[in-house]
Amino acid sequence: MGFEDMLASAGRHGRTSGALVMGGSRHRTIAAASPSAVSAASGSGLVGTVLAHGVTQGTVKLRATGRTDVIVGTLPFAPGGSTGWHYHHGQLLTVVTSGTLTRTLQDRSVEVTPAGSVFIEPSGPEHRHIGRNTGSVPVVLYVTYLLPHGSPLAVNTEAPTWFDE
Q1: Is the pLDDT assigned to residue 162 strictly greater than 80?
Q2: How many CB atoms sit inside 10 A of residue 54's CB?
Q3: Distance (Å) of CA 50 to CA 33, 41, 72
Q4: What pLDDT does residue 20 have?
Q5: Is 89 in contact with 155 (CB distance < 8 Å)?
């Protein structure tokens, strides 16, 4: 059974409202709203769990070359919490499942991403940024890292000289 079948089964049983499905015909990635069981309509011995759900605002393009570490994790942080300034050696696909994440980027732009949204973080030191929870509820991120094999999850860096927290 493929992910599409699992998602269709979950939708018929009211367990999730949809999913982001990406990839070619042989490989799929899913992200959905909250942890929920996804059972098979046919087959046996398979029960999946949808961890997070977000909706993109347009086309999503991910790219990885060479040996790539694919790591999935959750990043919860309390109101007032911050990631500190950092960058990544590879792309990240992030689903915000709770709260609102505010990111200040290297170019001084600010992106505000509410729960239910998805964003891609580009790679490289020219894309350093800081993520902050300026709200009153915890921010929870489900992050899929696509990193060159052996790379750290993030590289901490100094804040730009123009940044005044």
Answers
A1: yes
A2: 23
A3: 7, 16, 13
A4: 36
A5: yes
With 0.70 as the threshold, say if the pTM is over it: yes
The runs of H, that is alpha helices, within 50-136 are none
| Rounded-to-integer distance, Cα 82 and Cα 100, Å | 12
Cβ atoms of 71 and 92 within 8 Å: the answer is: no
As a whole number, mean pLDDT of residues 26-55 equals 65
How many residues would you count in the chain? 165
pLDDT tens figures, 92-140: 999 999 999 999 999 999 999 999 999 999 999 999 999 999 999 999 9
Tokens 């790591």 locate to 71
Which own/partner pairs from 132-135 qualify as long-range (CB within 8 Å, at least 24 positions apart)? 132/81, 132/82, 132/83, 132/101, 132/102, 132/103, 132/104, 133/77, 133/78, 133/79, 133/80, 133/81, 133/82, 133/99, 133/100, 133/101, 133/102, 134/79, 134/80, 134/100, 134/102, 135/79, 135/99, 135/100
By the 8 A CB rule, do 149 and 67 touch?
yes
